Amino acid sequence: MSKCLLNSTFLCQNVAQKLRSSFRTAVPKSVPAPLSRRNVTVRAGEDMEDEFDMSAVGLEDLYDLVDASEMNSRAAWLPGSYSPEYLDGETLPGDFGFDPLGLGADPVNLANYRESELIHGRWAMLGVAGMIAVEASGNGSWTEAPLWAVSEGSPTYFGADVPFDFGLIVAIEIAFMLFAEGKRSQADAESRLYPGGAFDPLGFAKGKNEEELNRLKLREIKNGRLAMVAITGFYSQALVTGSSPLANLAAHQADPWVENIAKYDAILKNAFP
């Protein structure tokens, strides 16, 4: 009788799901010798007359296979990569199992990283929008913004003079940041991340069910990550070319064969010997 090799995860998943629905709450956790992290191969006849031996396989082993299969059947940051157990793809918005260094294995660290990523993403979105808006409106570029402080000139806001000196502006910024950080430290974890109220002036989150809120959270974290990549690119671009994003784009469009990364090959070689 010809034999076929069935995929162990697929077969065990079907068996375990049936067993789980009927017996998981009734079956004790103690099982035969665990087979976790082992390859389980089951051979069966095409007519399924042969009964495969399940005596060496505990139910918890099958449950582990199902859990691993479900966890790794979702979208991953790298095709073929495996997600760590603490990243289940459901608890955290935008979770694609990316933690190659295992930095989030500690639940406390994972919560801190989640909060830091969201906050930095929001700052990056504000920064990118500000960099583009000022330059697009014809009021200079972000690379020129700090020059007034260095040259002892007058600070400006969208081209208009600001009646404050550098020290007063720094003091006001510190005061506002201390107030915000103080309020943030008094709130619970979820309120710190999504305070709502005055921080949702357009009411995007009002009247939304859980599914809609999760969709908004996913969009926010995705755009925040993209903004962090963008602002890193803006800084790198300014260091290499000494120019701003829109100015570089206009120069490249005007003469793409000259205004490109090859023009700055010598600078890049000196920066990264």
From TrEMBL:
A molecular function GO annotation: chlorophyll binding
Organism: Cymbomonas tetramitiformis
Protein name listed in UniProt: Chlorophyll a-b binding protein, chloroplastic
Physiological role: The light-harvesting complex (LHC) functions as a light receptor, it captures and delivers excitation energy to photosystems with which it is closely associated.
Binding site for chlorophyll a 1: E117, H120, N223, R225, Q237, H252
Family classification: Belongs to the light-harvesting chlorophyll a/b-binding (LHC) protein family.
Subcellular location(s) per record: Plastid, Chloroplast thylakoid membrane
Location (main, coarse): plastid
